[in-house]
Amino acid sequence: MSTGALSDKRIIAVSRDVRFSPNSVDKDMAILQAVASRLAADYVVVDENRLEPDMECDICLSMARNSATLDILAGMEQRGLVVVNSPDSVRACRRSEIEAVMSNLGVPLPPRHGEDGYWIKRGDMAAQTSSDVRYCRDRDELEAARRDFATRNITDYTVSAHVVGDLIKWYAVKGGFFRYYYPSDDGRSKFGDESHNGQAHHYAFDAEALHEAVDAVARETGIVAYGGDAIVRADGTFCIIDFNDWPSFSRCRDEAADAIAAFVMRYYNRKKSI
Questions:
Q1: 3-state class of 10 per DSSP?
Q2: Which pTM was predicted?
Q3: How far apart are CA 244 and CA 18, in angstroms?
Q4: CA atoms within 13 A on the CB side of 52
Q5: Per-domain residue ranges for the chain?
Q6: Below-70 pLDDT ranges, the chain
Q7: Helices marked H in the chain
Q8: In CATH, which of 3.40.50.300, 3.40.50.11950, 2.40.10.10, 3.40.1190.10 is domain 11-85+252-273?
Q9: Phi and psi of 254, rounded to 5°?
Q10: Which one, of 231, 240, 248, 62, lies nearest residue 158 by Cα?
């Protein structure tokens, strides 16, 4: 896509609060700017903590997650501005809420109980530190983790059994874009949690079925740019263990930026033609 496709439009790119980008600040900024630059040569980057309700623009590309910022973005939407990702869709991707959505849709999820350990994950917002997502070897460690969450005033969390199999990271954009990768192949990691699944065996599985599953969640929530993690078992079955709004797309940034920018253009032109 050529730079400046919407060169006459005012574009604000809202960057994510650094606490929601642990070990990923530069990567998150890179995808945000990559999308913005494909839409206009001249755009403004605003930290989500500095976004003001009266800021003027035609299109707002947003990686924001703060509740106060999402409220501001909701007001901008009500004024007719195009906001991607929309604030309502971002709220729907908070862990405890997105797990409920996936469960209602029948999307494959990890079981609640198992014999290979457990994961306890903060549910009220995205992980900010490694202590917000923890692997527990047994029930005793799980109960200790629950108590630790309580001391931090975290009462909203999810618990699931660890699933043995290949860990894959997947990335998607509304409109058809979908890619997946094996973190153990390149060694990239945010918190090092990928090590619990070891080196990938590259078990055969139905990638189209995975795409259809996450696409169904996206349609339900309205999210445009999204990604997450899944486990593929030795028998080829899979379960989704994470679903996030606007990831860094670091393994496929240019392709993803093209796809997001193309969606924004279509959405803006359709909205303004009504």
A1: coil
A2: 0.91
A3: 16
A4: 3
A5: 11-85+252-273, 95-245
A6: 1-5, 187, 189-194, 274
A7: 25-39, 67-78, 87-92, 95-105, 139-151, 183-186, 207-221, 253-273
A8: 3.40.50.11950
A9: -65, -45
A10: 240
Kindly give, in sequence order, each residue whose CB lies less than 8 Å from that of residue 151, ignoring residues fewer than 6 positions away: none
CA distances from 247 to 126, 170, 221 (A): 11, 10, 16
Which of 43, 22, 46 lies closest to 34, judged by CA? 43
Amino acid, single-letter form, for residue 167 = L
Let me know if the fold of 11-85+252-273 is the same as that of 95-245: no
Class of domain 95-245: alpha beta
What long-range pairs does 105-109 form, CB within 8 A, spacing at least 24? 105/216, 105/217, 105/220, 107/213, 107/214, 107/216, 107/217, 107/240, 108/213, 108/237, 108/238, 108/239, 108/240, 109/160, 109/239, 109/240, 109/241
Residue with tokens 């409220």: 71
pLDDT digit string, tens, across residues 47-79: 999 999 999 999 999 999 999 999 999 999 999
